[in-house]
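Pasting as-is:
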Amino acid sequence: MRQKFDVITSTCVPLPLENVDTDQIIPARFLKSTDKEGFGENLFRDWRYNEDGSPRKDFVLNNPEYGGCILVAGKNFGSGSSREHAAWAIAGYGFRVVISSFFADIHKNNELNNFVLPVVVSETFLAELFDCIAANPKTEVEVNLPHQTVTNKETGNTESFEINGYKKHCLMNGLDDIDYLIQNKDKIEEWEQRNR
């Protein structure tokens, strides 16, 4: 799951549904594990599979026309409970970026903590992405973390996105919070010495 971010160019998986909550991302019955592994196979479980476990052919993750490491989702993605398992499932499936016009705050931070980049775009840009992907499933999107831009390669249109400077540094260097502290151990100890 942990990979350094720079520029990612990929085709996309469209999920043009609003108000997708964390129970829809990963149903509560799969929350028994505290290990991050294996959650990707149950991402969107109740939409993705029939009760007998067979794949639903009409769900986007089961459609071979769509693929890539970018999920394009409708407004208010990740609402509901604060379960970190939802971000584990997204990362475990292989998504590196989720694009939406609005994320629930806790879920957005959970994605960042699990090396998934949540990119907030305007509703107009999001609608354009959905239209382009529907017309051409091979539409590519470029997400440039250093410059904080997202580009629809089909139209050439670009938008900027915001990200906390600390989280940007961590993503670009493949660091979680503990790694960051260890990397700065000498500075922390020096500060403690000065401020006794």
